[in-house]
Specification:
Layout lengths: L7 E5 L19 E5 L2 H7 L6 E4 L15 E3 L8 H11 L4 E5 L6 H16 L3 E6 L2 E13 L9 E6 L3 E6 L10 E4 L8 E2 L6 E15 L6 E4 L20 H4 L1
Organism: Bifidobacterium vespertilionis
Keywords: ATP-binding, Kinase, Nucleotide-binding, Transferase
Protein name: Thiamine diphosphokinase
Length: 251
């Protein structure tokens, strides 16, 4: 493929695109743009021309994209969902920061799957942001999100959940309810419904573990710090019918 390496990737998925200024997709200059299956319908409606289109096209309502090096057609019985395939393509092109629109709402199983994918990115040293309904969902592993001072209105919630079995040495300085050297687990809810304080910088960090974090879309973008280097990648594309299916299902 002729697409140059990009540090940031914007992915259009087939989920919900909520009305309102806070939910308007933003494509940074120079970002790689990928449409995942039915996300191509939304990209077209927004007047965005993707650099690449990928999927099995079972959720696409408009015209199927022309075959070529910028279109990757996948079988519907593959192991990976289309969103993971889009993330893998972005990663292969050098992206480590991902902004995903249309990854929330609609089918709840797709929403849960996409939150898991944010954790997958985090465990490999990347970061993804799911945008929708005035909220951003992200994940971080062994690192910190630092938010500059802001004027987000009270009542707009920041919540923190442990995706890993246990997340150790969790700190939340500068938030309304501050946590110091805490431990969160994925079976006890202790980090929900926090808030920014007006004019106060804040941070959310975990020394060991993976956190899923939600924050208001109007908050300033956080600065990401990782406490160590990460290795590995997201793996190859799943381009064949899954070998784990029963033989009759592969026919």
């Amino acid at each position: 493929m002729s697409v140059l390496a990009k540090e940031t990737c914007v992915i259009f998925g087939a989920g919900e695109y909520y009305p309102g200024l806070l939910n308007t997709p933003v494509v940074p200059d120079g970002a790689l743009v990928i449409a995942a299956d039915g996300g191509l319908d939304h990209a077209r409606a927004l007047g965005v021309a993707p650099d690449l289109v990928i999927g099995d096209f079972d959720s696409l309502r408009g015209a199927r994209p022309a075959a070529g090096e910028r279109t990757i057609a996948l079988p519907p019985q593959k192991d990976d969902p289309d969103m993971l395939s889009a993330l893998k393509i972005g990663w292969l092109h050098g992206a480590r920061t991902f902004h995903i629109y249309g990854g929330l709402g609609g089918r709840v199983d797709h929403t849960i799957a996409n939150i898991q994918l944010m954790a997958l990115l985090a465990t490999h040293g990347g970061i993804g942001f799911l945008h929708g309904d005035g909220t951003v969902i992200t994940a971080i592993t062994d690192g910190e999100l630092a938010f500059p001072a802001n004027d987000v209105e009270p009542g707009r919630m920041v919540s923190v959940f442990s995706h890993s079995d246990a997340s150790h040495d969790v700190n939340e300085p500068g938030l309304k309810y501050q946590l110091e050297h805490g431990e969160l687990t994925n079976t006890v809810v202790q980090g929900v419904s926090n808030e920014f304080l007006p004019g106060v910088p804040s941070a959310i960090s975990v020394r060991s573990g993976t956190l899923v974090i939600t924050f208001p879309a109007e908050a300033p973008a956080p600065e990401v710090t990782r406490f160590h280097d990460f290795e590995g990648d997201l793996g190859p594309l799943s381009t064949e019918i899954s070998s784990i299916l029963a033989p009759q299902a592969r026919e």
